[in-house]
Amino acid sequence: MYKFFFLINPISGGGQGKVIYKFLPEIMESMNHADSEWKAEFTDKDRMEEQTREALSNTETLIAVGGDGTVSAVLSTMLLSGYANKVKIGLIPLGTGNDLARVLHLYKPFVDRGLLFLVRRLLLARPRPFDLWQVNGKLAMANYFSGGIDARIAHDFNQDRATGVIASNSVFFNKLHYVRRFFADRSYHLKATKIRYVDETGEAKTVDISGNRTVIIGNIPSYASGSNPFFDSDMADGLLDLVIVPNMFNFLSSIAFGSVPVIGYLFKKFVQKSIKVQSVQIELDPQEFLQLDGEDVSGKLGDQVVIKFASQVQMLSLGA
What we know:
- By secondary structure, the chain is of the alpha+beta class.
- The chain folds into 2 domains: about 1-125, Probable inorganic polyphosphate/atp-NAD kinase, domain 1 (Rossmann fold); about 145-300, Sandwich (Tumour Suppressor Smad4).
- Helices cover about 35% and strands about 30% of the residues.
- The chain has 10 helices and 15 strands.
- The chain has helices at about 15-30, 50-55, 70-80, 100-105, 105-115, 115-125, 150-160, 170-185, 250-255, 265-270, and strands at about 1-10, 40, 60-65, 90-95, 125-135, 140, 145-150, 195-200, 205-210, 215-220, 240-245, 275-285, 290, 295, 305-315.
- The strands form 2 sheets. Strands 5, 6, 7, 8, 9, 10, 11, 12, 13, 14 and 15 form an 11-stranded antiparallel sheet that branches. Strands 2-1-3-4 form a 4-stranded parallel sheet, with helices on both faces.
- A hairpin with a 3-residue loop joins β5 and β6.
- α5 (about 105-115) crosses α6.
- The radius of gyration is 19 Å and the shape is globular.
- The model has no long low-confidence stretch (mean pLDDT about 90).
């Protein structure tokens, strides 16, 4: 049984995972961890589930090195394999958005002091309780689920990357291309969409949101690379934040001002309000654009999406 098992995405962050893999022996030795106490392995997209199951069965702490998509894949396997209450989870952020890393206070040390500093800090970090949700009984949701213009942008971005339109793995150029996709997709609205949810008091409600710009269902107080459209979000309260965005003004304001003290608070309290919910069921056009934890899931979930509480896991965090 290993104390730490590193699953490293070799292409995330322009290949920075390979740098971590190279320096891990030196780091672990400097922290007095014998070779027998840890293991590192590059992920293979065709074997990701198998690799994750093997790692979970052989470690006390699994550290995912990559973007939000890498972590989401690890957490989905964790739920389905029954290890949610047995193995602690850590993250070294190498993606474009890194929303989960931001709320776990991992992103700033990475930006300010570098990857190797973060690795050392993470190995000493304490776990904190963290809600994990399940989408259609098979996919884990740690960050957020959304449909509409933001998901359309994410879909087109991934298409551009897959077809070679985006040739760079640079985080900066990825964000720049996201901006370009926004202007290209700015006229998009939700297709026929109806939401049924159970609010925090247990009351069931139904809302038709067809024609709105987007719907965002969040578990953490970070969305789209650090913005925060959610009011008083808590990652361990057994509730989600449902935000229905009616127009472009609200969409851009949520991104621009959501994390700004005072202005963001007032905007989210009186203008773009969040609804605390226990569960969500969405009926939508099968061709609607959808994203889960920053990953494009358009066309993969059918005409109904059900999001329910799954489990609480222990996440390594550098904050309270």
